């Protein structure tokens, strides 16, 4: 890495991050302020947080690139830690500049990228081998742990985002107690109409099932089956609608060309998310109803583990690496918090954990991105290319040959151009 190129990278990083990250952060913060009904009085705080976020990114880029160049100058050559050590210090500086309320979100975003990159490093060196359908096994284990916490330790997981999403998908918040609970933001007339529509659809499904199963003899079975079918159809609609929305956001021109939009509604890239969610809900709800009768109602923990593990097999229909890593990281965080509650792990301040995780994750990502870009996840490498306007791909890899064998020949030259993200 020449000093001239280091200067180009540094100047481009500063300008690009200061503009783009500031605009994105300000837009998201202003949108959330409007959605939550906050007044214009909160606008100065939004501007301050935006400035801090941009300053944090600029501080990281400056410290990392300057540290790598200075370490090379002091030692006279590159070593395996030439990117890790400067990035470790730079990550610590940037996270301390960042707002405390955003540290947890940033660490949760970067830790899966670091873990994925470390796995690619081990796989590239032949230390580990790829496991066929390994994402299914990993997701099933994580889902089994989540279902156990959700069923047996509801008080400690009630306020987590995954618990809310799981309750929403399984339609448990809608079915249980919906007559007595009012949402804070829904008008009573709208809520009553939604409940009537939900009840009419449920009755229709029960009538269809009643034609095959005697309702008078097995009333509970008919009710359970109708709940499972209704929740599965609802989950498919959520997944399918979300996939269509993301597809349109990526290609806005489809809105003005309806002739090309409708054939894509059954595209192979849109259906898998709905199939995954509906299959997960059907398997999990079905087993959650059957297993307590087989194992006994006093073994709901085992029933939750089995239901979650088998329900996680449905992820085979939607093999998303991003979904897998973020989900597993969040579940691991919930498990660690639970172990801290029962005294199996030492109590550590949440703020300190976020700082440590962010610092280590940024050090790993920077090491892989600079010395071993072929092992970095494609999406994050594309982001680095976009932030530096393509100059990150111009880094000379030949000085890294003593550290990484054939480093110059392993460079990712097949990714996005300099002008694209």
What's the alpha carbon Rg, rounded to whole Å? 25 Å
Catalogue the unreliable spans: 7-22, 174-186, 413-421
Count of runs of 4 or more consecutive helical residues: 16
Gap from first CA to last CA: 23 Å
Helix content: 55-70%
Question: What structural class do helix, strand and pairing data support?
Answer: mainly alpha
Main sheet overview: none
| Beta-strand percent range | under 5%
How many beta-strand elements?
A: 0
**Average pLDDT, to the nearest integer?**
76
Shape, principal axes of CA atoms: globular
Order of helices and strands: HHHHHHHHHHHHHHHH
Secondary structure layout:
Elements lengths: L2 H33 L7 H33 L8 H14 L2 H25 L9 H19 L1 H4 L3 H9 L2 H4 L12 H23 L8 H32 L7 H7 L6 H25 L4 H12 L9 H21 L8 H22 L6 H10 L34
Could you please describe the fold and organization of this structure?
The protein has 16 helices and no strands. It is mainly alpha-helical. α1 packs antiparallel against α2, α9 crosses α10 and α12 runs antiparallel to α13. The longest helix is centred in the N-terminal third of the chain and has 33 residues. The two termini are 23 Å apart.
